[in-house]
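Fig. S4 source data, part A: sequence.
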Amino acid sequence: PIAQTLPSATVFITITNPGSWTFNWDFGDGGISTSSLASFQHTYKTYGTYIIRLTVTNTQCSETQTQTITIKAIPPIVNFSYDPASGCVPLTVKFTNLSRFAEPDTYIWLFGDGQATSRAIDPTYTYFEPGKYTVSLSASNITGQVVTETKLLIIEAFAKPSAQFETKPKLLYIPGGILYTKNNSFGASNFLWSFGDGGTSDLFEPQHIYQTEGIYNISLIAISSNNCTDTVANKAAVIVQQGGQLLVPNAFSPNLSGSGSGGGGSSDGKNDVFLPIMRGVTQFEMLVFNRWGELLFETRDQQTGWDGYYNGKLCPQDVYIYKVVAQYENGERVIRTGDINLIR
């Protein structure tokens, strides 16, 4: 053939008008011959464009014919690998060039996100947006033959969740104080809380009880369904002190269908029982009187308050007097007295 690609490089030559003349062959690569065979072959050692020249002479005349021969270089064999194929953003992928017979300065990488290209042999690329990406690599050989290898949707970058939370109260008294959490995270399905005292939780909005005084950092790890994570930490999120807190309401509205079994009861969350909010209280006593000083209710149980009944009957709407005596964990003793409005 007049054109072929390495490793094929042998030209087959046929003399179409043989005779008893003198044959002088020049193959264009430095090779010469005087063969008069009707057919023979010549093999080129490398790529290039060659002119085969045949000069035929007798004692008086000569004639010359030429033919251009092209031997093309081996075309590039383009291929590449990548690792990892998927992960959380920002996802950094290492690409390994497995190409052969390409010129090192002709590589062009397209990473599928429309952001950048690379001419490196083995590039590293970072994807910052979630999605699936197609990657292509082009290369050419020394004679300019371009080959492109494209691999469709081979890289998948997963979205990263966002970890956000709040806690309260800022100042917590022990024993008895409870830390409450509010989870504001999004894009996550699992959670891991760390409360700074060795305590952890995997609940969505856990509560936590501290045992010792201190200032504690609280952190939250939010985990997506693809195991992508985000971590947020609040320094000095809670101050824990031994001592107490006593908050006394000024009104309550008894349950009109209460049991009336002696005046004690537990609240159903509708402000139907008069009971202070206590934190860090180790000893407790509460007395309730009417305006004439008659004792209507007495308790030393921190879980039991006055339900508005006396001797099995609901007391009338009026202003009543309370006295609360409490002792905190740190030994401090407090006495509170005041008015409580019974609303019917």
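Fig. S4 source data, part B ends here. The chain has no helices and 34 strands.
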